[in-house]
């Protein structure tokens, strides 16, 4: 491994670390306006929604995305469980069990 590659890896790691740590340090020393805090409260929901929707789609080059029916079928009871219980553990358990049943029955 050349010094150039090693330096690139170390500097990339440093930049990544700084981008993750500096915002926490800045926020800890200052108070954010209420509007910013309210806006930032939606970030986790937006990220989880993007991951969820991405798992329901199948990439097809040169065509519209298709639907991953196995994931869609397994997500239905999980979403219902989330609405009813609001328990992450229950949602995960129902989702895993639903996926296991779908694969066992060959519906995917």
What's the gist of this structure?
The chain is mainly alpha-helical and 108 residues long.
Largest sheet features: 2 strands, antiparallel
Query: How helical, in percent, are the residues?
Result: over 70%
Written as H for each helix and E for each strand, in order along the chain, the element string is: HHHEEHH
Determine the structural class based on helices, strands and strand pairing: mainly alpha
Q: What portion of residues belong to β-strands?
A: under 5%
- Gross morphology: extended
Helix run count: 5
> How far is the N terminus from the C terminus?
45 Å
For the residues shown, what is the average pLDDT?
93
Q: Unreliable runs, pLDDT <50, ≥5 residues?
A: none
What is the total domain count? 3
**How many strands?**
2
Q: What integer value in Å does the Rg equal?
A: 21 Å
Order of strands, main sheet, comes to 1-2
Describe this structure in words.
The chain crosses the membrane at residues 6-27, 39-59, 79-105. Pfam families: AzlD. There is one protein chain. The chain has three domains: 1-30; 37-66; 68-108. Helix content is 77%, strand content 4%. The protein has five helices and two strands; from the N terminus they run αααββαα. It has helices at residues 3-29, 34-40, 43-56, 69-85, 88-105; strands at residues 57-58, 66-67. The chain has a two-stranded antiparallel ribbon with strand order 1-2. Strand 1 and strand 2 form a beta hairpin.
């Amino acid at each position: 491994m050349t010094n150039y590659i090693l330096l690139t890896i170390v500097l990339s790691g440093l930049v990544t670390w700084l981008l993750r740590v500096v915002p926490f340090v800045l926020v800890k020393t200052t108070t954010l306006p209420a509007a910013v805090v309210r806006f930032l409260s939606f970030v986790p929901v937006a990220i989880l929604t993007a991951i969820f929707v991405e798992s329901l789609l199948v990439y097809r080059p040169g065509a519209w995305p298709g639907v991953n029916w196995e994931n869609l079928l397994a997500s239905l009871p999980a979403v219902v469980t989330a609405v009813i219980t609001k328990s992450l553990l229950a949602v995960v358990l129902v989702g895993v069990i639903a996926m296991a049943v779908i694969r066992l029955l060959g519906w995917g």
